[in-house]
Structure prediction request, 263 residues.
Amino acid sequence: MIKVLVIGAAGKMGKTVCQTVLDDSVLSLVAAVDANHVAKDIGEVLGGDNLNLIIDDSLEKSLQSATPDVAVDFTHPRAVMDNIRVCLKHDINMVVGTTGITQDNLKEIRLLIRSSKSNLFIAPNFAIGAVLMMKFAQSAVKHFNSAEIIELHHDKKADSPSGTALKTAELMEESSSTPIGSAHSEESVTGARGGKYKGVHIHSVRLPGLVAHQEIIFGGLGQTLTIRHDSIDRLSFMPGVVLAIKNVGKRKGLTCGLDKLLD
Ligand code: NAP
Prediction:
């Protein structure tokens, strides 16, 4: 059995991860950490029977008492780095789905991981369909040099643009032999053309009712190509999260991106 601790266990993603771990024959939920619903039984928070697993707000204490094999983090961009530092200090393997991790954060992680026995797996998107969308975008950008990204998420999402949009733009830039073209147009309303990252315009939509969606529109002579992925339920992320939990112990150091586990 792989013993799993979930950080952000009472959140939208965390609850789905806890239920998925409980339903998996190889995984065992040993601790639930969250700033919310502290001292409640995680079973009650999941809407079922008590599991005798009390939500704690101290990651450090939970790591010491539950001794997990893997900690899974779905918290908040402002919390995730502290959680990573604590897990690396305690030599605990970690799967991180929380977005908003910057290039500077990655530099720090690469330094810290050298003096830790932990392996760390980070993915901005655990949905297999989203990984394929990024792969297809890398192929398309070789033939279509003009492209823009529209990403759409629920209205409680803390960061913009999404980690998936940033990753997609990075991969597209890497795959394109020429800079990605984008038409210049005066903005009479600030932000009308979105934000520009790696030469790609990114537009972030935040609305209730949405989960996680993204489309990349490529423009060429007399034609457009649209590649779109929709996560309509948080269950879409779970096969990827389970794959990462089961593999993080085998991948030395830092691994970024679910694609690394699919090839
Ligand atoms: P959420 O519903 O707000 O859940 C986050 C939970 O973490 C909340 O209960 C929050 O408590 C708690 N929390 C915040 N800081 C904490 C800390 N220091 N220690 C313990 N718990 C803490 O958010 P969500 O929709 O589940 O999303 C969580 C993250 O996952 C976001 O960054 C989101 O972008 C990302 N995400 C990633 C993927 C992927 O595939 N990689 C997919 C979906 C979402 P409070 O409410 O009290 O702050």
